[in-house]
Amino acid sequence: xxxxxxxxxxxxxxxxxxxxxxxxxxxxxxxxxxxxxxxxxxxxxxxxxxxxxxxxxxxxxxxxxxxxxxxxxxxxxxxxxxxxxxxxxxxxxxxxxxxxxxxxxxxxxxxxxxxxxxxxxxxxxxxxxxxxxxxxxxxxxxxxxxxxxxxxxxxxxxxxxxxxxxxxxxxxxxxxxxxxxxxxxxxxxxxxxxxxxxxxxxxxxxxxxxxxxxxxxxxxxxxxxxxxxxxxxxxxxxxxxxxxxxxxxxxxxxxxxxxxxxxxxxxxxxxxxxxxxxxxxxxxxxxxxxxxxxxxxxxxxxxxxxxxxxxxxxxxxxxxxxxxxxxxxxxxxxxxxxxxxxxxxxxxxxxxxxxxxxxxxxxxxxxxxxxxxxxxxxxxxxxxxxxxxxxxxxxxxxxxxxxxxxxxxxxxxxxxxxxxxxxxxxxxxxxxxxxxxxxxxxxxxxxxxxxxxxxxxxxxxxxxxxxxxxxxxxxxxxxxxxxxxxxxxxxxxxxxxxxxxxxxxxxxxxxxxxxxxxxxxxxxxxxxxxxxxxxxxxxxxxxxxxxxxxxxxxxxxxxxxxxxxxxxxxxxxxxxxxxxxxxxxxxxxxxxxxxxxxxxxxxxxxxxxxxxxxxxxxxxxxxxxxxxxxxxxxxxxxxxxxxxxxxxxxxxxxxxxxxxxxxxxxxxxxxxxxxxxxxxxxxxxxxxxxxxxxxxxxxxxxxxxxxxxxxxxxxxxxxxxxxxxxxxxxxxxxxxxxxxxxxxxxxxxxxxxxxx
Length: 756
Prior knowledge:
Layout: H1 37-48, H2 67-72, H3 90-95, H4 112-123, H5 141-144, E1 181-183, E2 189-194, E3 197-202, E4 208-213, E5 218-224, E6 230-237, E7 241-248, E8 254-261, E9 267-270, E10 276-280, E11 286-290, E12 296-300, E13 307-312, E14 318-323, E15 328-332, E16 338-342, E17 349-354, E18 360-365, E19 369-374, E20 380-385, E21 391-396, E22 402-406, E23 412-414, E24 420-423, E25 431-437, E26 442-447, E27 451-456, E28 462-467, H6 473-605, H7 610-707, H8 711-744
Antiparallel strand pairs: 1-2, 2-3, 3-4, 5-6, 6-7, 7-8, 9-10, 10-11, 11-12, 13-14, 14-15, 15-16, 17-18, 18-19, 19-20, 21-22, 22-23, 23-24, 25-26, 26-27, 27-28
């Protein structure tokens, strides 16, 4: 194994935790006290575990009261990690109750102090005694950045951070078959096999972004690490040599090369924590290597024919392998112990893929079927015909779907239960490889003719192609410049077509807008006429109310005048009667007064005439009484005259009021008459305005119909705009592509030496 080159880190690339405790300077911190099996751990095992795990009662074939037996492990393999990793030691995990079955069974976990001793013992290398030396292996940048989770890693997407050469290592006139294809799980990056080279294409634009030399021969397997930072390439020369190379995606440099086969590597994979590489090929051997040292961890001769498919489960626990004689085996990844032997296929196993949760294994075969296997009991849960003639490749997606391709030249997309969701257009030749990019939601398939096809997974739309034999940089630049010229012409033509149709629609729209403005004018005129009519109706209503009030007043005044006139007549009659009575009482008074005067005269002649005196006295009384009567009647006449005068004054006043009210009534009636005439004229004008509005609306509606784009015109405009957008995008793309090519055209090829 001395020829295998281990991965050695430069100090500049070192990451926290990548250097073991043995490599640290003694000046960093005081040396920790050694924790040993004999002194510290054996007493714990005897007290807590010895009753079940001793030489006589070794449950699960695990003995813990003997150092050598404990380090050997039990039926499920090694339980104590000797590389200083308690988290990878099954014994420590069950003792801390972080994994099942918990130990000791049915009891609380050990005291923290004892667990801490076990942890430190494993961390220091699981030493037997004070004279033992730890054999902790040096960690590297590969394992230090490992991520076995299927979740997106923190930080930027794993894309090349430096410009990579795009000059092909070998330029061929014809494309060779796509023997390997992989999509980065977290970045828009596609790896495609080429002769003596690996081509990195941008998964979105399908532009070549880098060429990784592979002088060892033809790559037959390409896989990205679970965190997308490392690319595994396996291949070689048929019947001569084979190996696996690990590339750093950010720099394009080689990190390691593993294996030294006497035939090409047909299948390989990198474990999720990037500590192991499994490979196989025509020699029928499954070999698993440690990445950190390049040393062979274990190998298996189980397969009886070429090993054609290999993949670690996402959780890193299991390893699936398939061969050309329908052999399908699941192994314990870190021990190499056989886990399941799965039978059912009747043809070569061409590919295997794990579901993201590691619970289901999919296998594709030359028998045309895809079979799904559950890992609880190793049973087959689904079997469906996928490709007539044979399934060549398949891939579980992160959203738990399956893409596949085969000899029928049709790439297909299935759900997790094997129900077909979509067929993609047939490839030119037999489908060889397939993958899915979650970053672009696209499916990619490579065929025997050397073309890689890209489709939208959502609708199956064709995106484009890339090839396994890209042209030289000079040819790429010339092609890009030609494409740029064509794109400029397309942009000009597409822009003219869009503007022409837009102008037609704009002119019709302008006419429609003018008609719409006329509708607004007519509506304003109608509103003005309506407002004037309403105002006039309101004014007439007010006049009618006033007229009604005045007529009520006139009626009341007339009634009052009639009553006063009648009262005057009564008063005049009474006054005349009183005047006649006054005349009578005055005449009676005068008569009595004259009789009194005669009586007095007679009395003067006969002063002693008693009778005459009595007569005079009697007459004087009567005169006085008559005078009183006259005064009384005169007072009544005077009072009645006053009453009559007041009534006559009231009559005069009411005559004036009646005259004024009649004048107001006449005025209001005149206003009503003229108002009705005006209202009639306004109503006529309003009807004319309403008809004008109706005409304007009909004209506007007609123009709007003309102005609105028909479905054909909408479709035509959308097509022209889409063509313009596509042409503009292509123009920008080719401008950028030319800039990129010119920037990297003189870059030297990447070294094929492993980084040390």
